[in-house]
User: What shape does this take?
Amino acid sequence: MIAFRGVAWLAVLVVPAMLGVSAATPQQPIFSARVDTVRVDVDVRRGGRPVTSLGAGDFEVFDNGVAQKVDLMAAAAAPLDVVIVLDTSQSLDAKARSHLNAAGAAVIDALQPGERAALVAFSDRIAIRSLFSSDPTALKALVGAPMPAGDTAVNDAAHAAMLVGTAASGRPIVILFSDGADTTSFLDDRAVLDTARRTGSVVCAVTLGDRGGVLPALTDLTGGVFVKESSLARVATRFAEILQSFRRRYLLSFTPAGVAREGWHALTVKVKGGGEVRARSGYWSDAPATTR
Amino acid sequence: MPRRTHRPPVSALLRRAIGVSLLVVSLAAPGTAGAPALPADDDPPTAAWKLAVWRHIPGKADGALQTAADIPYWRAANALKGKDALDDRRFLIRALILHTDLAIVQRQTAERRGTSAADERADGGSFVLADGHATGRRQGSPHWSVAMQVAVILATWRAPESRRNPDATPDAETRRIALSWFHTVNALFLHWGEGSLRYADTGLLHYPGDAVLHLYLGTVHQMYANGRVQQFISASAEGRGAANAPQTASVELARAETDLRRALALDPTLAEARIRLAHVVGDLGRHDEAIGLVEDALRATLPPFFLTYATLILGRNQTRAGRLDEARTAFDRAAILAPTAQAPRIGRSQVALMAGRPADALSALTDVLGPDRPPAEAPAEAWAIYFRVHDPVATEQLATLRSEVR
Assistant: This one.
């Protein structure tokens, strides 16, 4: 197992493991020597039921088609850092918003010791209400804070949430609700997917009806789930199910070998003996960061 | 675009005018794409209507306006066919303003009440959209049609004494006022977030070489390509089935490109058309072309709104073209122009992320959108309302039009 010290946790980004360097500011590392480690958050099911008894040897991971040596990490080593993203657009009335606020509060209540949450609200305006915090009282007070109604800038909100996720020290997860497809963002679908490739969050989305816009592709790319719901009253349940599912996921890590460092790395994760595997479809690796 | 440098604060006007964002997509109902047939009128033009035309003070909700409102619109429309009305240029210009003011007042009243502007069915009606969802139907005031009827008369008006000469051309000054009406009404509808093709289409029948009408027509198609309209169209069979219904985003963008190119061919100095064309071309994936267009536009002196809008388009396309240093400069400039605006921050964060600096990407957002930064009361910023603003702004154009009544 590679030692991780003072490094921001990125679910599947290239994570610089520092050797002989004291803890640095998470997002502005300066390295004298480095080993890149990739972490992958994986959900495995058979017949729709989660499989929870696998070991590292049960997984096969291919980075740009090249098989990698995989380690399995203990979940306790990487607590969840959840970014809750709630739609406050004008198409949601007061009752609908109360359901959403309850869903957000339920996620906060369900956090376990060591886990944290951040909060983003959006209409056509984005409000990062809280970066990661382990104070549930403060977080819950912000869930229902006033927000101007407007159109739906879900692309911009997803971008903001994934950036908030880059400040995670644990496993960054975005749990997002929107009642419809994007209507007004500055970023188009392609830009949001690019953000997903360059950041490490697993994005899970719950929407009303079929109007998901980029969200199905976004959740698929990041290894999350896309849930179509018909009732706002059940959003809290869906959020809870999503959160619970992450406690049954596997955390794989590997040090890329036999592949070029920079650029897009397509990932393939397989389970020996078969199963439905959900993991992000790749990761982006930038040039060495010594001069950034 | 007129080359003036001083402008009233557009954002303040729009913040009041727009409030919660609504769009209205005007459609001709199936089978009623043309002008509606007017009832036969055996009653001669009423003296009360004529008196109202002469007495109305432009821009005032006065008694004359109320008198005109009490007369069925089709009676006024029929009265406009009378020889005595047609011969009097001053009367026609006053009638144009009266029915325009009446239509505006009826629209405001209907908006307050959440009802249609009139019971009479003068057009195919409109869908009122909130965040891409249809929240109702609305009939426009029939007095828009009456006013447009007057505008068409004025566009071809000749003095009675010249009518015997078949070679005489329409009176240029009168024709200019009619064109001003077509400009103003197109700008007003876009300012209100109402997409209607009929005023630009009708105007172009009489002024095919007018660059500004092509600009407005292109802007309506640009608006139709917007996500708010597209969400409605994709979800609504009713919307798709209507005549003049917006088409897919790619079709609408292609139409917008055609109209905006015509506008520029007719008037290469029309910077607004160049900026909108850059936006459209960028959305069609031709980023280098978009950059060239918007860089040309930025060489002109632009009012603040269009300067911000153009700078955002520049940064957006430079980002897509991978020209990150230039894009960062553009977004920094946009952030200075609009310090609380969201779009420049989103753009900066995207550029920082693509450059491998996620911490900078996050701080670019939190500087304006982060904790302890209360969201602005309304997002009246360039990116949210780009199709609603023209130069001169619609309300200025309306004031100028009203001043034609002397």
The longest helix of chain A spans residues 94-109. Chain A touches chain B through 47 residues (CB under 8 Å). The helical segments of chain A are 94-109, 136-143, 154-165, 189-198, 215-222, 235-246. Chain A has six helices and 16 strands.
